[in-house]
Design a protein that fits this description.
Chain A: Keywords: Iron, Magnesium, Metal-binding, Nickel, Oxidoreductase. Chain A: InterPro entries: ComplexI_49kDa-like (IPR052197), NADH_Q_OxRdtase_suD (IPR001135), Ni-dep_hyd_lsu (IPR001501), Ni-dep_hyd_lsu_Ni_BS (IPR018194), NiFe-Hase_large (IPR029014). The complex is a heterodimer of chains A (378) and B (148). Chain A has 378 residues and is α+β, with helices and mostly antiparallel strands. In chain A, strand 6 and strand 7 form a beta hairpin. Chain A is globular and about 75 Å long. Chain B has one domain: Rossmann fold (3-Layer(aba) Sandwich), CATH 3.40.50.12280. A five-stranded parallel sheet of chain B has the order 2-1-3-4-5. The model of chain B has no long low-confidence stretch (mean pLDDT 83). The chains are: A alpha+beta (378), B alpha/beta (148).
Chain lengths: 378, 148
């Protein structure tokens, strides 16, 4: 055959509500002979304008509104928003409150990672593993209901400490201890079976890798960045995590295997932190209400959400919120989701998107910023 | 009981549509159907993502302006008889996103679900509990079964 063979480039569009996508977002894959040549993810269908609603609300009200940014990592949004106010007003919180915040935050990380693993296994087509992980996750949800009173939006932190209803008594401490033992035991069994399954391992090894250099260039954060070998975790810079010993897990390769194993290992670290917190839980009151409202400039705060670095900032004026900005980790990871698909088979594209742990409801807040500013190809 | 409702009583297909909620209700509903603890599949309720084979439409979220058209298209694509369940505080009344400023209309939210499509069952809660979702699915059954 001489002459150029004409290769037809096809566009496969999924979107806003598509059977393969569990959240409303739009993906356009440009496919050439079953190989993805370009990918484009558009968000914005979910835009609710939460930062605009926060503008001008009293601080306490605005804080509880941030919980509604995301239904998976709701607690960490509230925590960070409260931290902004506490930093600005100079509030010192009791040590017991700080410990309980960390327990809730780590339980949330466990359930978010378990959801990621279950979703990943579902995309892989292994429903049994997915079911097992959902079953483990149910334990965590019950523990969160025990602490905060609700399964999803538990609303534990307030300015000056935590809500008194989330205080831990003997019964709660014992049940959390039993719960995390159960999670650890079941997850160990899962990890053993997962890693010794040759079918799954050959399906996920080397699929959709992101190199370390590209990950840094695309401003990837969180476990997705650590899965490429970069040792970066905001928890080490947070003063409230100082009393705890934990390791920052890293993996090499940045492929689906590294990402999945990364989450499993992080859950074990979270269990370790919760165990230390329950053991050393200090006595005393849980909320300090002796702070006074005053005007502040724009204060910034970072915490490590389950998906990566979360940024909140606002100023306080007459007890009301001004100029609120929220930057969620999934927003930084959108570039990686597009990049991971390129050059790979079309059947791997869904895995490539899922491996970056997308949460598009988090991301859809500000259409102005969602203009793919992180994406170097634009 | 006709043939249609006879077979429908043995396999109710529910379709879940996200219209801009916070993901909390959505995951709880998926949890209610899939997870081994609640497991709606043992009551022959299946989750599908294809509107043409669905009987029940579960809508979460306050329906953002961008999602209004897709929601109507999906609703029209479902064959009769159909039941719509609005799940969560946002779907029932717009939640925290709508009308938090008083009477100023929101620029992003085009209203609770019943302003866009007719609703048959309502599940309260923020986020909804899986038990309540199962109860709503059972409550919507008579409409499906008696229609034939």
């Amino acid at each position: 055959m001489d002459g150029k063979q004409e290769i037809i480039e096809t566009e496969i569009a999924m979107g806003p509500v598509h059977s393969a996508a569990i959240e409303p977002y739009r993906v356009r894959l440009f496919v050439e002979d079953e190989i993805v040549r370009d990918a484009e993810i558009t968000v914005g269908v979910n835009h609710r304008g939460i930062e605009r609603i926060m503008e001008g609300l009293p601080v306490e009200k605005a804080n509880s509104l941030t919980e509604k940014v995301c239904g998976i990592c709701s607690g960490v949004h509230l925590w960070n928003s409260v931290l902004v106010a506490e930093k600005g007003l100079g509030v010192e919180i009791p040590e017991r409150a700080s410990y309980i915040r960390i327990i809730v935050g780590e339980l949330e990380r466990i359930h978010s990672h378990l959801l990621y693993l279950a979703h990943g296994n579902e995309v892989l087509g292994h429903e049994t593993f997915s079911m097992r992980l959902f079953y483990i996750r149910e334990t965590v949800m019950e523990l969160l209901r025990l602490i905060g009173g609700n399964r999803v939006q538990y609303g534990v932190p307030i300015i000056g400490g935590i809500r008194p209803r989330a205080d831990l008594d003997e019964m709660k401490i014992q049940r959390i201890g039993e719960g995390i033992d159960l999670i650890e035991e079941k997850l160990e069994a899962f990890a053993e079976r997962f890693t010794s399954d040759p079918m799954i391992m050959s399906r996920i090894t080397g699929v959709c890798p992101i190199s370390r250099k590209d990950a840094l260039r695309l401003h990837v954060t969180g476990p997705t960045l650590r899965a490429t070998g970069v040792d970066l975790d905001v928890r080490r810079e947070m003063p409230c995590y100082d009393p705890f010993e934990f390791e920052v897990i890293t993996q090499d390769g940045g492929d689906v295997r590294a990402n999945l194993l990364m989450r499993v290992l992080e859950i074990f670290e979270s269990v370790k932190i919760i165990r230390q917190a329950l053991r050393d839980l200090p006595e005393g009151k849980v909320v300090d209400r002796s702070w006074e409202m005053q005007d502040t400039g724009i204060v910034k705060s970072y915490v490590e959400a389950p998906r990566g670095r979360l940024y909140h900032s606002y100023a306080i004026e007459d007890g009301r919120v001004r100029g609120s900005i929220i930057r969620t980790p999934s927003m930084s990871n959108i570039g990686a989701m597009q990049y991971a698909c390129i050059g790979h088979h079309i059947t791997d594209a869904q895995l490539g998107i899922v491996q970056c742990d997308p949460c598009f409801t988090c991301t859809d807040r500000a259409i102005e910023i969602v203009d793919m500013s992180d994406n170097p190809r634009r | 009981m006709g043939l249609k409702s006879f077979s429908r009583a043995r396999a109710v297909h529910a379709m879940l549509v996200y219209t801009g909620g916070c993901n909390g209700c959505d995951i709880e509903i998926v949890n209610a159907v899939f997870s081994p603890k609640y497991d709606a599949e043992q009551y022959k309720i299946f989750l599908t993502w294809n509107p043409r084979e669905a009987d029940v439409l579960i809508v979460t979220g306050p329906v953002t302006k961008q999602n209004e058209e897709p929601l109507k298209v999906i609703y029209n694509a479902i064959p009769e008889p159909k039941a719509v369940i609005a799940a969560g505080a946002c779907a029932l009344m717009g939640g925290v996103y709508k009308n938090i400023h008083g009477d100023i209309p929101s620029e992003e939210i085009c209203g609770p679900v019943d302003q866009v499509i007719p609703v048959d069952a309502r599940v309260p809660g923020c986020a909804v509990r899986p038990e309540d979702v199962l109860a709503a699915a059972v409550a919507a059954l008579p409409k499906l079964l008696e229609a034939d």
